[in-house]
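Rotation project, supervised by the postdoc (A.L.). Task for the rotation student: set up a whole-complex structure prediction and record inputs and outputs verbatim in this book. Inputs entered:
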Amino acid sequence: MTTPRRLTIVALLSLASLAAAAWRAEPATITLDPVHSVALFRIQHLEAGLFWGRFNALEGTVRWTLEPKDAPVFDVTAKVANADTGSEKLDGNLQGPNFFNAKEFPTITFKSKDATAVGDRHWTVRGDLTLHGVTKPVEVDCVATGIGDGPAGKKAGFECTLTIKRSEWGMKWGVEKPAKALGDEVKLVIALEGDVAAPKE
Amino acid sequence: MRELLAYIVSVILLPTVAAALIALPAMFGGLRRRAAVVDGCVAAGLALAFLIAFIHEVEPNALLRQLPMELPGDDAPFERWHRVALVALLLALVAPVLATAAAWRPASRNAMAAWMALVAGALVATLVEFPGATGMTRVMTGATCAACAFMLSRVGGVAALCASMVTFAGLAVLAALNGFPSLAAISAAMSLASAVLAVLGWMGGRRADGSRTLVVAGATSTVIGTLAGTSAACVGAYADRAPAWAWMAIALAAPVAALLFARLRTASGRTGTN
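Outputs recorded:
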């Protein structure tokens, strides 16, 4: 093979890989579907049972190329008013100043900053969790659970889990006073599903 | 069980003991005749009871965050309801001044108490702002504090402390029912402290000849009225289950009843004399 031909092939391959990289770098915006996006939280009650509650109707977006190796970028918001424990009284207590203080801090947000791939469609995502008026960095284990076709178009789903100490966000009631009324550790399991919009031309 | 007991001791009993220790010397013996000392000690005792209950229930930094100062290593949020602790701190500091001013001219004690109630109400309306506050709710909060303080100054004596006990007991129950256990615990501490001071005042009255009336007009009425009105507005601001005026009515109910009872008693006493 002559040198000019080799150069042409190298140039073409380089262009192809650049094009592929450019195509891959343009992520789609996945707008969360509030009906199918929910955050479950688990906390220990009186050092006994593990109590589960949920935040319904999560909102926000995920930016993702849909490629297994590429990490998604999350921007998710939960409204404290959407807390649902199955008990109206408990829901009211959660809105109160001893817990989420919904009047002053009505939303919980997570904005991801970067991520490390753990496996195919599986990442450790690092970002800021804002809860109870306090913003702190967290690491979230995220899995893309699937990409499917719905009647209105393509859908993508994720499941993310993390465990936090609520006292670090200033939610201390029940941890020390009254001691051991409620656990400090809260496990969060976040199920997200959204509609995939094609990247803008 | 032990944790719950420790909680009750630190948040409810300890503030009561502190209030009793401060007021005790003024309740018995010669000091009882000195109106300014009695009024100042009872008022400061109650304000400190509120403050101690708050610090034990929440944390000292929650109070310090209300002051214009940097707290190294503290990244907890500023919460508006913590302002009630600042009100208690200011009342504890000015209680001796109020008591001295109220006792300056015994003849104009009622007018002085009325002025103190008005100024306290105006300051609360200006400086205390809970979530969702409007100009109207702030005026209502200030007016509740002033009305509560004024009525208690007219009731005076052990009856004013009993009214305080009932008011804070009511606030404690309603705060607990409306998902506000911290303010419920603080109100419970205030109710117990008021009850203990009322008992001490009554016992001191039975032992002291010629000075049975416990003078708690001025400083004490201002402290109770301001803290009751502010606490009621605070619960009302965070609870959606009742309108703001309902909470203020709760703060006013016991002082109104105590004042009516005192007036009826005075009227029946006059009738009996005639």
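Student's summary: The domain at 26-197 of chain A is CATH 2.40.128.110 (Lipocalin).
Supervisor addendum: Chain A touches chain B through 24 residues (CB under 8 Å).
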